[in-house]
Structures
1.
Amino acid sequence: MAGFLARRLLNYLVLIVVATSLAYMLAASALDPRSNYEGRNPPIPPAVVDARLTDLNLNDRTPLFERYLTWAGALAHGDFGRTVAGGSVGDDLGRRIGVTLRLITVGLLVGSVTGVLVGAYAAVKQYGAFDRLSTALSFVVLAVPTVVLANILIIAAVRFNEAVGAQILLVSGEATPGLQGGFAAAGIDRIQHLLLPTLSLSLGLAAVYSRYQRNMMLDVLGADFIRTAMAKGLSRRAALTRHALRTALIPAVTYFAFTFGALLVGTTFTEKIFGWHGVGEQLVDSISTNDINTVAAISCFAALAVLLAALASDVLHAVLDPRVRVG
Amino acid sequence: MTSERTADARSRNGRTGGHGSGAAPLPLRAGSDPVPADPVLEVRDLDITFGRGPGAVRAVRGMGYAVRPGEVLGIVGESGSGKSVTSLAVMGLLPPHAHVTGSVRLRGQEILGAPERTLTAFRGRTVSMVFQDPLSALTPVYRVGDQIAEAVRVHQRIGAAQAARRAVELLDLVGIPNAAQRARAFPHEFSGGMRQRAVIAMAIANDPDVILCDEPTTALDVTIQAQVLEVLKTAQRETGAAIVIITHDLGVVAGFADRVLVMYAGRPVEVGSVDEVYYRTRMPYTMGLLGSIPRLDRGREQPLVPIEGSPPSPAALPPGCPFEPRCPIAVPACAESEPEPVRVGSPGHLAACVRSGEIEAEGWSPAQIYGMRAVASTADTAVRGERPRPRGERDLVLAVDGLVKHYPLTKGTLLRRRVGTVRAVDGVSFDIREGETLGLVGESGCGKTTTLMEILELAAPQGGGITVLGHDTARMSARDRMAVRRDMQVVFQDPLASLDPRMTVHDILAEPLRAHGGREVGPRVRELLGMVGLEAGHAARYPQDFSGGQRQRIGIARALALEPRLVVLDEPVSALDVSIQAGVLNLLEELRTRLGLSYLLVAHDLAVVRHIADRVAVMYLGRIAEIGQADRVYDAPMHPYTRALLSAVPLPDPVMERSRRRILLEGDLPSPADPPSGCRFRTRCPLFRSLDEAVRRRCVEEEPQVRRLGDDHGVSCHFAERLGAE
Amino acid sequence: MTIAEEELTEQRASVDRIKAPSRLRVVMGRLLRSGRGRTGSVLLALIFLLAFAGPYLTRWTYTAKDFTAFLAPPSTEHWWGTLQTGADVYAVTLRGTRRSLVVGLLAAVVGTALAAVVGAFAGYFGSWTDRSLTWVTDLLLVLPAFLILAIMSPLFAGGQWPMFVLVLALFLWMVTSKIVRSMTISLREREFIQAARFMGVPPTRIIFRHIIPNMSSLLVVDATLNVSAAILTETSLSYFGFGIQPPDVSLGSLIADGAQTALYAPWTFWFCAGLLIVTVLAVNLVGDSLRDAFDPTARRSG
């Protein structure tokens, strides 16, 4: 048992190492940090640029494999290298991960809980008004990419604020810098900032989950054990909530691992558009600034997150389903 | 797993009879009243239609019956006859797109169209139900005890602790050993038989007046079936409820029911007391059913009379009698209008046939009505009679010697680990000589399918040896293997699953020919279709366009395409209805005689095996219990397991059923991952229990090998002689 | 051809004529009977018509700039208005739609084909084939696709969009491949596959003649839904400037530009955003009703 777990974790570690290395190689060969120093006025002497790049281990004149070894050697000691600006990648990401995790956690909870509830209710009332409405809505939401949705939300918020004549919905950043007032004021300000990004992130998730949960629920509704439960004398409602929903939750939880990757991408867009200084925003910026070390570090973070999500969904599955629990 | 075994062990020491000593008495009611009571359940003019408009399917038409307290009514019919739908209508559990008319009265109260609240009050309390598939009837995520306690608490105002105690009592009543502990188990930790017991416990939790059992034993092995039927009898004794048992098995009905109702195409076609219907049959369909079942107590001499054709689609019923197209004694009047059930003979016996009067007056027997074909099949038997050479002189087609197949047992998905070794096949030997049929029988988990797959793989076995047509699989080159594949073919159980749904029949039959380098496949395909009784024009259709029996014929044709010498038959008729099964069995017989084939037949239905096998091998837990000439094994079984197995098979003969002594085996099959030491059967063996302590040690310590007890008859039991003397 | 065979061919042909309509026709019939399927198909047909025939209706090309009208609202001259650069919104939007459709369709087909082959081989052969293919699948799942695509974006400049399609497809197949693999494992145990195996049919032939055709419904549905996934990925990448490179345009780059001016020049944002939403919606509707059409027993459509 411990052996199996150990082998699995080892496999995860290998996957992360390979994925991160691959990302590094790709980034190091495709991105061009030297271009950051071009077109400056006054022009920077090539020797200075070279020295600076070598110092950051970003010099494209050093062979790729040599740069990789330097980078990997530092990484083995927990050092992700330095950004193009010279700061520590590790410190920078450490600051940003908190922001991203806050956004993801809230978005995930709101999205999945809403989705599961909506889907389950729609399945119970199959072909009813609620089912039709929620199905239509989820189709529309699924057709709107996050980048468009976020922009639509911003436009709507601006119009809304104009209409009520006050800045209710805030569309930029995580908090208002230099805000005066006590704890309550800060809290409200945070919520005002959080509202739209959460919506942008969780709407799509809710739509996916509601479709999935509805299908799972319909599968379970036709199962023999629901018939048994009703043959016992349970009312339809009791049979559905106690037996059907509980059983149909299991696949929804395992589905979580599959959606997590998409969630990370969604977070990237949301952060960038709403100006949250999280990892996602850094991802987009690092490519624009040819920041190879940051790109590699973010890849490592993403790989770790996806694998942790897979592990978490397996654990949840085991908790929910006695059939896979270790006996 | 460990707890299950200790539970079994304890129950063996502590228990004597059908149910546990610790059970609190259920409120007893008079089992049988002297005066006929009012019916508890009365169904009249029940019509059930699915969908609307031209595509509507009339599943049930004019169904009616009544059951009185303590009475057992058997409803018999083939798949699609509407028998299960009727019981769902009684429970009010039909899906919303079903339109139901007529009347269903429970204790005099109409429940068709009653509001949900009335229905929930009735369900589980007045009428309860046992479903067919015990695997899916319990919610997988809740403990068994909790699910039974829930059933109790729906109708009784008692506390959780009290309900839990009651659940344990009920589990004990239905014969679950160590009930208090097993109540905490999840459904997947129960075997099929135990789950069905749990479902029965749930059904009797509120002391109902009627228990509807929908194919309650179809998914179970025959020895477990005998146990479950016994539990149902106990349940009936304890509650005094009426039972409606729905089944396709005429044997189960013969021994269990008081009255029987035969359904065909959604209608009752014959009703009456069991003896009346079985011995004085007045409807040709019922006669056909009774004539087409192979019987355990008769060998090959019994001619099987198949009913030609297949049941009509409920979406396109003929205007007249629905059985008319298949009826051997149909007259023009039959096609005009559908006959109503009329009284024939003694009171309560009704039959829906315009010629039932004639049948009654002339006293026609099934054999007379289906006479023509019966004669034809006896002629076949006569041809086969000239079997010239004795067994020893014929070529060895297949030899299996000490075959072993173990595979690892793992547990858990998150923390997968190996928890043991499943000893699926553990030293099995048998052989087949040219022109003979060996039947490999046993219950699920005995290793018969694993044995068959090992043979078909043609790979080197883990232990022992397999020699097919003179080639040892362990020393086979790729070319040899290909050659042997040509000479050994297989027919699978489920005809639909074994034919690729995306290919036409032509392509299906051509595939083996092309795989072995055939070019001109057209004529051969036509020939094959003719050989199995299909038309050449069928070649362009897809498997889905055929009925079950026809599909199995296609499967057989494919197996014969390369003119094999050995055909492996894996449960070839178990997916078919009885009336169709007979035709396929006759075809297999005929082809064997004509083409000089050898068959290895794997089946769980002992009657089918008796009908076509020359020799039989009975398997138990990965070993052979008894092997030998079929008549010897069936008529004078020497192994206690074979005896129990044969006694558990119900016969379609009410008088014989009532007089038979059934050897009930206790408990379930032990896990093949941890078989008992010594003799594997000793934990359930009635003979073992009757031995004294000193003698028993041999069973515990020494694993019995197959011993020859006579000419071509071997038994793996240390004390087989004692059984014979008994 | 022998006479008997000729006869048979004849017979087959005649039976073919009277036999039930082909599977394709049945599925299409069901698709068009469902309201959702009909809406989706009609919408999709209109979008294709607009994207491929629409540009011929106007004299403006997507590269042309009208220096007399910057950020002009819709008029008879510029039906959907103009951008800040003076480009005609109608012309550039249709050009972008065409690009998105082509990229989406190709990437989906390539991705699904890859998924089918990898999944079927992994599932059918098991052991080390399975382990190594599954490992590669896992690796690609773990790699952040968006990031890799973004890094490689310079390679797609200068009309190298087919390269973009290939890389996009490379990140579309993993989940489907896992489904195909587990379906293959269960199909492998099915009796008709075993029958073929025991008859001596070689493994690759079994995969291509039995296994993949028997998953065609899943694959068709998946390919359809992959079209929308590919379009969404493409537009998102292009939004951040990592996808289709200028001077070519895509809906994503148009939306990115339009979002800047959306508040005071709504036509720059809503036409391209709306067309994108309708396209994806139509593809999803078709995909979802195709699933129902292939499997009429699962009564899921609402």
2.
Amino acid sequence: MNELPQQLVNGLLLGSMYGLVAVGYTMVYGIVQLINFAHGEIFMTGGFGALTVWLILPGGTTMWIALPLMLIGAILVATTIAVGAERLAYRPLRGGPRLAPLITAIGLSLALQQAVWSLYPEAKSARTFPQIPGGPIELGPVTIQTGDVFLLIAAPICMAFLAFFVMRTRVGRGMQATAQDPDTAKLMGVNTDRIIVIAFALGAAFAAVGAVAYGLKYGVVDYKMGFLLGLKAFTAAVLGGIGNIYGAMIGGLVLGIAETMATAYIAHIPGMQQLGGQSWADVWAFVLLIVVLLARPQGLLGERVADRA
Amino acid sequence: MRNRSLLILTTAVTAGALTLTACGSRDDKGGAENGDNGNVTVTIGLDAPLTGELSALGLGIKNSADLAVKTANKKNYVKGVTFKLESLDDQAQPSSGQQNATKFVADKTVLGVVGPLNSGVAESMQKVFDDAKLVQVSPANTNPSLSQGPNWASGDKKRGYKSYFRTATTDAIQGPFAAQYVFKDAKKTKAFIIDDKKTYGAGLAGTFKGEFEKLGGKVVGTQHINPDTKDFSAVATQVKSSGAEVVYYGGEYPAAGPLAKQIKAAGAKVTVVGGDAIFSPEYVKLASPASAEGDIATSVGAPIEELASAKEFLANYKAENYKEAYEAYGGYSYDSTWAIIEAVKKAVEGNGGKLPERAKVVEAMQGVSFEGVTGSVAFDEFGDTTNKQLTVYQVRGGAYKPVKSGTFGG
């Protein structure tokens, strides 16, 4: 059992990444009741945005200078695409039937994937991502990679920032008001169109931070990286209670740790060898989701609200 | 009201799209039976992943097959016949492979198909080709059950499809060959075995495990991964605490690269060993050259750069200025294509100079024997190659270098 601390850290790191992406799903859903299936692809474009900045920078730039610039590049690309998508694809459909924006989101997801695949140079297979130099950091029984340090620092900062933003700022209170009742919020003088754009942009910025962390952690970015991760992040958002930003973070961490534990330990349970290992981890993660939703249909932190449709 | 008009619109668009695709596939009919100079055109189909993660290998296969077709046409190798290569992309997906197979079968000018790369894709194509009696020669499938039936390991070998042939050596030889090298030459006795649960990967890992344990090696752990994810940290931690000296991975380089990288980053002092599907410069790139150093891959045949028989192929490949390298299966693809050309030649000659039916080409293939790029090419009673040579490659200075060639002797 001496690998348990390390496995917990592995799960925590994976979960932090899920959480960063899940925030985008949950915020958009909380405000416009839209499951933005293109969010995984917005995450992916953030990764390519960071890669582009790295390729433009002169060779040999140290990561201390490059990383902040890459982060800005990633956030710029991802928010631009998310805001553009909101303006061009989702806003015209806002009054329409609820399935229309959902199908649009799926179409947008495919379009973004294929656009990167065909237009970005050499993106038809995985592209290598720059790495933070230096060896792993040993902390007692736990080893942390240099690439993971970024995620360890960035994820809590992002989450704290978001909590502060939503709770304490004027715009954040506007978001809460719009989530509760868009019509009343509008009557009270909240510019709901602006609030919706901000929700999309903020979600995209978080996804972009997640994408840079992904590149640093795994060393590659590819046009498909948003698909599976987006699906997992969406699962995390549902697990935590969709619409609740703290739920997204908790859901991400629970999902990440559950997957890691399933990979590491299920096969050790007598009679379960066939159902263990990483290839079954997703199955166990979804079993967990079903169990949680059976007990708490609103998710871990979600509140039961009357359907507004 | 709006809902209804939307529904009608969707239906109209779908119907339109279906009609268009139907028109598209009708273009494949055998219109080019007679070329302009009295020559008959015979199409050789090619199926490989031309896009996606495995496209480096797939494009190498396509270019090499193209070279064989061009050479045959230039030499006018089969009198009265002009060959044409028709390439379809399977994206390494069994479902796409099967669709492509159906397309080839529907095109009457197709007399043989080269491909696919993946054993899992081959499984989905075999029956389609066999029902149509269309010959298929794969340059890269290594899973034994494709030719010897699902119970090959217990000695109950049965050929399922008479139309299936391959120029690549099987994993029944490749896995054990790697096990012998690891145990006897590299002197490593503790292995952690990982596979991706695909036809190729699980089969290869199984044959490695069998031989490694027979030799006296110890398997300290096994894991099955999902090749679609990139997070292998939990597996890496397990490998580290298992005390393994080698990790044998049954699977392909897109997952193998990040897996090897994460295992080594976790602090495990291991050599990663794999089969022909990690024998690609892409593996070194994805694992990062520093952490891939010392890793081992086995691949079918001998390195063609060192074969006298491959000199002409290498020179011609260079002269054609293909954009992509021929990669691991270039020589085998050329030989697979050439085997089809030889079989067509024999069948044409046996048919008084006229184009034979497809079944005759399958019959002719069984007796094909010639000196190819990779050595002598001929097929045994299962459709497997009689050339059982394999080579061990090791990453040295950031690139795979051959270290030992040989044949596996039980």
